[in-house]
Design a protein that fits this description.
This protein is α+β, with helices and mostly antiparallel strands and 475 residues long. The chain folds into three domains: 39-197, no CATH class; 222-293; 320-474, no CATH class. Helices cover 29% and strands 21% of the residues. It contains seven helices and 20 strands. It has helices at residues 2-35, 91-96, 222-255, 259-289, 339-348, 377-390, 421-428; strands at residues 39-46, 49-50, 63-71, 77-84, 106-109, 114-120, 134-141, 151-152, 161-163, 179-186, 320-321, 324-325, 352-353, 359-360, 369-370, 395-398, 414-418, 441-446, 449-456, 469-474. The strands form five sheets. Strands 2, 4, 5, 7, 8 and 9 form a six-stranded mixed β-sheet that branches. Strands 13-16-17-20-19-18 form a six-stranded mixed β-sheet. α3 packs antiparallel against α4. The longest helix has 34 residues, at 2-35. It is flat. The termini are far apart.
């Protein structure tokens, strides 16, 4: 007896624990479900109210919007109906309960907390015996999962739209249907005005909008892509026709006893197989030889040629060359540092300045020379710092002789270095000491140095360069 009593006590304790857990888990879940319930907080016609006679005509049909403010509804579907509150029982009313034809329980996927259903006004369900003829309101029904409460616009601000219809002369009926333009999302409920309606529309309006044409993107496919698709369609049609001819001639061959007709059928089967082989064979052979033969590309890639350090054309002595005259002394007076000062500072740091001929530029337009005069002091300091950081020999082969190099000049932080294994290793940031032949730019930002180095080799990059070198632009 004591044994069963213990089991009853344990069972009671377990039941209490389960009830407690259920209360902790289920109640908050229900509360969360209630918190996340889709709610229509406010909705209204825009414009709304009594518009009287002449506001709507069959030749001048204004736009109307139903603005909706929702909460926790994004991605969910609501159902909206626009109705006419007439008291007359017409045949259409029996089926739609006074709802206009294309807005009777129409499902709408909510795009945002604030959105508009854009329409073109019509006369559907209006009664000429009423005053005014059209008395529209709307209803937002519960969704199938019950996530949305019913919303009825009658007796709410902005909830009615009234106007006289434009009855036809022949029958005196209000017979123009409404038009559906689409859904528009907006961000602020308080700033909406009737001015957002745009230009009223005229003419025939479809029950549903046609697909919208936005723009023609010629870069994605272009004529080449179009022809490729036509090519594939033609081959597919050829295969389909071949199979069809095989079936027809096969049936003819089996169904006839005539030797002559059997011969025609065999000939048709052979021709169909030959046509199929030619169509597919041509594609396979061309695609095997070169896929580009069956992939028409009428928009080839643009080829750009980067010309760097192109020498200027030096004229005869006395000819103007930029701001200077060919034959004038170089470096111009007043430029600091002078050739002597710049070379001395570099030389004291163990840096050599040389050229293909070993000459120092003394006049404008002089070929095969190198000039360090006019290099900024800050650039000279960076060259010295680079030698220290890479712990490698540095030889300057190009500096301010602007007539020999397009990007060089007085006051510019641009120099050329001869190729050394240590410098190459430092610039590329790898263990390799091989000078690259890819003509690429290498961005270097380390040890307090920031510069762009371009590997320029002969003849891959700069055909007129006397030798491979590093083209350096300090930042």
């Amino acid at each position: 007896m004591k044994y069963y009593g213990k089991k009853i006590i344990l069972g009671g304790i377990l039941l209490v624990v389960l009830i407690f857990i259920g209360g902790v888990l289920v109640v908050p879940r229900n509360a969360r479900a209630e918190e996340n319930k889709c709610v229509i907080k406010e909705a209204r016609f825009r414009p709304s109210g009594d518009k009287g006679s002449g506001w709507y005509t069959d030749s001048y049909r204004p736009q109307v919007r139903v603005d909706i403010w929702s909460e926790n509804c994004i991605g969910k579907k609501i159902q909206i109906s626009i109705r006419d509150s007439d008291d007359h029982n017409t045949l259409d009313d029996v089926f739609t309960r006074d709802s206009i034809d294309n807005m009777n329980g129409r499902p709408i996927e909510v795009p945002g907390d604030y959105f508009s259903i854009k329409l073109v006004a019509g006369e559907d369900e209006c009664e000429m015996s009423d005053n005014p003829d059209c008395n529209y309101y709307f209803k937002i029904d519960k969704t199938s999962d019950g996530a949305t409460e019913e919303f009825l616009s009658q007796n709410k601000e902005g909830g009615m739209l009234r106007y006289q219809c434009d009855g036809s002369i022949l029958f005196g009926a209000c017979d123009e249907i409404w038009g559906f333009l689409g859904i528009e999302k907006f961000t602020d409920w308080t700033t909406l005005t009737d001015d957002l309606l745009g230009t009223p529309l005229s003419g025939y309006v479809l029950l549903e909008p046609l697909g919208e044409f936005t723009s023609l993107d010629a870069e994605k496919e272009g004529l080449g892509g179009y022809l490729n698709k036509i090519f594939a369609v033609v081959i597919g049609l050829a295969g389909l026709l071949a199979v069809l001819m095989l079936v027809i001639n096969g049936i003819q061959y089996m169904m006839t006893d005539s030797v002559f007709q059997k011969g025609e059928a065999k000939s048709g089967i052979g021709n169909a197989l030959l046509g199929l082989f030619l169509a597919l064979g041509a594609f396979v052979i061309l695609n095997t030889i070169n896929p580009d033969l069956v992939n028409l590309d009428l928009n080839p890639d643009k080829i750009s040629i980067d010309i760097n350090d192109m020498p200027m054309i030096v004229g005869a002595p006395g000819t103007a060359l930029g701001d200077y005259i060919v034959g004038e002394p170089w470096t111009p007076s007043g430029i600091t540092p002078s050739e002597t000062d710049a070379r001395k500072k570099l030389s004291d740091a163990g840096i050599t300045v040389t050229s293909s001929t070993g000459a120092t530029c003394t006049t404008v337009g002089q070929p095969g020379c190198t000039s360090a005069g006019g290099l900024p002091y800050s650039t000279i300091d960076k060259i010295i710092a680079l030698k220290t950081k890479c712990n490698c020999p540095i030889t300057v082969t190009g500096a301010t002789e602007y007539w020999l190099h397009k990007t060089h000049g007085l006051g510019k932080a641009v120099v050329d270095f001869s190729v050394t294994p240590g410098l190459t290793k430092y610039i590329m940031g790898t263990e390799t000491e091989t000078f690259p032949a890819d003509c690429e730019d290498y961005a270097v930002n380390k040890d307090g140095l920031n510069f762009i180095a371009k590997a320029e080799a002969t003849p891959a990059c700069v055909k007129w360069s006397p030798a491979p070198h590093w083209h350096i632009v300090f930042n």
